[in-house]
């Protein structure tokens, strides 16, 4: 009953929330595929078959093979896992750091606000990819470091958003009411104000997620992201780019996966806010 | 005296939801030259929609309009956009409720007043235009119009801004002026002045006025004719005096019955025996620092200057004054929201709880009613879930809220229901003192009556003492035992309601009473 209710429109319970339904289905399928991929992939992702390079779509190789004759479908699944891990981790770090900084600066204001926001501005002044580049070159490359680098680079934009929302609600009547009831600052910040920032935050998360997928692709393209032989969607795309003229189908698999992931999450976000 | 505007069978429908929603049914209005017609009704009755349609401001695609609005032989609903524009601002002008937002904050007053001249009369040069604007500003009763001409909206008070709006609307001498709740956002004294100004404009220029309001006593003072609207229909129409003396429809009677009445010759309302002080404020002084920047010195503004106030157990004390007199500052100090004050505030018992003016902003939109009511208990702690839930239900019964509403969000409730939730939330911790900051002024009249009755009942049942902040002396008379009149951060007069209303000592109190339409016996005003 409850689940059925969840998929209906809030202001028009007679109708299904098509956006949310589609988003859930796409995201669900993608996640299921990636989950199955943890246990089993059709081919070994590293197994090369030099006799069968640049093969097109077929039943044997659903998404063809790449320049080493590796099965693209298997690599897309493994790469999707890596990319998802990076995107989720990045958004999580950015969200957590951003929410805490934004909440504290927006709610308390004053000197804390000045200091934290100036640091924030400084980080903001660097392009996030450049910042991630510095962090990766300091601490070394690899999935974990990419997550940290992108996550930290993402904090300022989340912090700004959360801060402006907190500023908006800080002096509202219902917060005065909560204060008069004796609620402490932390309680007001996270139980009373935070839920009101969710709609804005949710769309920020979706945009952030998409940006993270793209940033990962960018870093991997520069060779400082995920290190070979571990596949990631971004790196697969950048590899396929070199053969775009001769084997255009090689980029279709990872491209499709990115589209499905981003589309699914976007629809999910839009659907929830509906 | 000819008919200047003829509206017949106006039908307005909204299409932004699945089912089309009719907001105005069969609206008819024959407006004669030089006539003031009042459109009365509660929020959602369709009065503003009808007026907006006449002003040609309903042009969104989701809205369909049928019927006829005849002006000058043209149907304003079907004529071309060009033709409609040629009337707007020139023949038909409109002023709005909120003078704070209806002026562009980044343009000088003069520029905004002149705008319709610039649009409709390109033959008039800049110098004449300025003369016209200055004349209009001074006619609208603004002192020093030359200075106002060069000022920005934020430099003016609410009343002055509404005068500017009127000057801008009147600059081309329109034949019809539509005034949509033009005084609702203003203080009583300023309200009376704006009403006088509208009456003067009507008399001098023979401008027809459509006056939209939910305040029946203002309509009674100003309008020749009244249309009472309810759920999108005109339920009763006729000459003001007849409608007020002899209403035919039940709804009109209910509306008129809910105007707070002050009959000073009546037997004074039953006052309770006051036993002991529950709140005593001595020498309370509050100052704000303003204008401070990195390189500028801060300025000290004294908002409250040595307030003495005593609230007795079971008493309802009214604090009356215009905006900016320090009422809300006093409330903040008493509830502990502001602790930077000098003087003393002695409370017996718990911290007082507060009910705010606007029930739409006083409830957190992202939690359910049940959660919101439970929150004070959770904060205090020491109760089981079941106990808390029982208390919530008990309190909902107390303020007559349907138990079904417990899982709803504030957005799904009406204004009256929300204010009940606010009152219930304030009473969850069983405070002995309740502070109510204009708790009914944002509500419809019929709802106001219900909320006032609720406060009275709570006082009787729970022995609550209430500090009631208001600018409406008529409401105060209905509810309160004692009145304190505030002006400029000082209490200038206080005493039992009966004494203050019959024998006010201060000229200012007398002015306030007069503005509220209360005749003071033996006063030479």
Structural class of chain A: mainly alpha
Largest interface: A-B, 20 and 26 residues
Order of H and E elements of chain A: HHHHHHHHHH
Shape of chain A: globular
What characterizes the major β-sheet of chain B?
Answer: 6 strands, mixed
The proportion of strand residues of chain B reads 25-35%
Report Rg of chain B: 25 Å
**Radius of gyration of chain A, whole Å:** 22 Å
The helix count of chain A comes to: 10
Low-confidence segments of chain B, given as residue ranges, are none
Question: What best-fitting shape of chain B do the alpha-carbon axes yield?
Answer: globular
Number of helices of chain B: 18
Characterize the structure shown.
The complex is a heterodimer of chains A (274) and B (525). In chain A, 72% of the residues lie in helices and 0% in strands. Chain A has ten helices and no strands. Chain A has helices at 2-6, 18-39, 72-108, 110-125, 128-139, 143-170, 173-180, 185-221, 233-242, 252-273. The longest helix of chain A is centred in the N-terminal third of the chain and has 37 residues, at 72-108. Chain B has a six-stranded mixed sheet, sandwiched between helices. In chain B, strand 11 and strand 12 (299-312) form a beta hairpin. The longest helix of chain B has 18 residues, at 188-205. Chain B starts with a strand and ends in a 10-residue tail after the last helix. The mean pLDDT of chain B is 85. Chain A binds chain B through residues 11-12, 14-15, 172-174, 176-183, 187, 192, 195-196, 198, and chain B through 17-18, 335-337, 351, 353-354, 356, 358, 361-367, 375-376, 379-380, 422, 425-426, 428-429.
Give short descriptive properties of this protein.
A: 274 residues, mainly alpha, 0% strand, globular, B: six-stranded mixed sheet, 19 strands, 36% helix
Provide a compact summary of the structure:
The complex is a heterodimer of chains A (274) and B (525). By secondary structure, chain A is mainly alpha-helical.
